[in-house]
Write a structure and sequence with these properties.
single chain, about 300 residues, alpha+beta, Jelly Rolls, Arc Repressor Mutant, subunit A, 3 domains, 4-stranded antiparallel β-sheet, 12 helices, transcription regulation
Amino acid sequence: MEGFSVIDRLAAILAKYAEKDGATATEIPRVHTLRSTQPTEPIHILHQPAVCFVAQGRKQTLLADEVYFYEPPQFLIVSVDLPIVGQVVEASEDKPYLCLRLDLDPAVISEVITEVPPSALRSSPPARGIDISTAPAELLDAVVRLVSLLDAERDSDRKVLAPLIEREILYRLLMGDQAARLQQIAYAESKLSQIGKAVAMIKSNYSRLIRVDDVAAHVNMSVSSFHQHFRTVTSMSPLQYQKQIRLQEARKLMLAQSLDAATAGFMVGYESPSQFSREYSRLFGLSPRRDVDKLRNLPDFV
């Protein structure tokens, strides 16, 4: 099957099951559809490890000052929790942006790796935790077969076949350009895994004052090595990462609990309301109140 015909089939299935603009969970574990019927404004999210296959339209993702554009038949891979800014740049009512997101499970990746001969696996030093690749026809075919299970009449088809096809997708990713990123997700002692543990520590303590020395010790790295690898993977320093997490969490609190900016800022670790409002406006482009009012009318892409 030619690459574009595979993409057309993927787009047709996603159009059928993407019920609304934004992200929609499917009956297949870890699989979501994403749709937008118009270009979007920049959307700040904390993107978890996943691979996103674009079937229609075009999108850009920003990590710090780096821009990643992707369109069919490309896919985006994220190997560690990253605060990014996503923006659909090509979409319409007649031809919406359509994407399939498969969340990456380290345990499943590890199982697949154990069945691959070590000589077939690639290895490389830690790299940025986000990248774009072009999907070969064999990989796209597996993705289409996975999402086609949404049409299955028997639940048992999805229960039995979906895990098998997910493993095939991971296998084909391991045999391609993104092998190193997948391996690093799975290996407990990899540098990416250590940075992942540091990210988890910062996320769980985002409202507290953290010392980089303590985080480095927690993941068994020297401070200099930790700084270097953290910036390599996330494109920012640990304190810059914590600031973005704080501001995104404050945004969620104001949306979900209708908190005022001062209260939300205090809850995420800010002592000065003016500093919180200043840094919030710098990141999101609007004051906290104006930004939250605007967000209430936007689809959820998380």
